[in-house]
Amino acid sequence: xxxxxxxxxxxxxxxxxxxxxxxxxxxxxxxxxxxxxxxxxxxxxxxxxxxxxxxxxxxxxxxxxxxxxxxxxxxxxxxxxxxxxxxxxxxxxxxxxxxxxxxxxxxxxxxxxxxxxxxxxxxxxxxxxxxxxxxxxxxxxxxxxxxxxxxxxxxxxxxxxxxxxxxxxxxxxxxxxxxxxxxxxxxxxxxxxxxxxxxxxxxxxxxxxxxxxxxxxxxxxxxxxxxxxxxxxxxxxxxxxxxxxxxxxxxxxxxxxxxxxxxxxxxxxxxxxxxxxxxxxxxxxxxxxxxxxxxxxxxxxxxxxxxxxxxxxxxxxxxxxxxxxxxxxxxxxxxxxxxxxxxxxxxxxxxxxxxxxxxxxxxxxxxxxxxxxxxxxxxxxxxxxxxxxxxxxxxxxxxxxxxx
Length: 404
Known about the structure:
Elements: H1 10-49, H2 58-85, H3 89-92, H4 95-120, H5 129-133, H6 141-167, H7 176-179, H8 185-220, H9 235-254, H10 279-285, H11 290-304, H12 322-327, H13 333-350, H14 357-373, H15 383-400
Helix pairs in contact: 1-2, 1-4, 2-6, 4-6, 4-8, 6-8, 8-9, 10-11, 11-14, 13-14, 13-15
């Protein structure tokens, strides 16, 4: 037709129409990729909320999300490769532009995906947020942890693979050497490296806030000056351990194994030391009067100088600690003994799960010291009583959870 009617300019019209149509197609393909992957993440959220009866563990959800991202990207690239392989004159003239659009599309896709992660985690609000989750839905910490690890996967694995596939496309783009490629892997990697750190910190903050609520309720409720003699470990400890178990379960599912090793505290001879050989408590328990108990507080502080060095492996935002909650109260002897009993039970329970038992003991020692400093009559419970009440609590928990 162009040969018959050269003045009609059909070739130019055809080229322009193809230019618009293919650019729209590429943009639409990336929109569907983002929509499909967002749907996968929302399904993970719904599974955790119990909206969907079939519930997947977080570990399976992470693998599903990884596969959805990589496979979706590879499918999109395959479609683009087929388009470039079409033996059409009008397409051959658009080859460099199509490659530019594909690169721009991936750059824009990962930028929007980062924004989507922030919305899903509650770090950023979107006008469509209620449409995504449903009005009033709360962000779940497990999903935030999953997004953090997914960000690490994008930075360390997905971007490299996608970059290799993009570079294998025929043609070199039309942007020219001065402008450089539209797809910049290093820039995207930095974005998701930052996102992974931010989301992990957000997960820690969410869990910390929940534990702080438990602590506030625990220490604001009783009159510690009129506290009765402790008969058993307080139910608050059960709630605290439940929350710690939830954290441990989520972390084990999401974070890679083999990065951490459990450390046992050892004495000068290298032998394992149980929670019963706590120098703070053992020295105090041999004393039977208030004056000697108070003197022991000074000795315990001095002993800390000779304890092993504590190492901090991650930046954690400072919040009010259990020790600080204790320092805000005034205890009678029974109140102090209740704190002592609860902390002893925590030590016994956590020693088999803590990454560094010495660090846990050190921090829990601080709580007992703080309680003694705020006690009117800091006479501790005898070891036999502590062990008897602790074993009674362990037996009770075992009877209530025979399958655990």
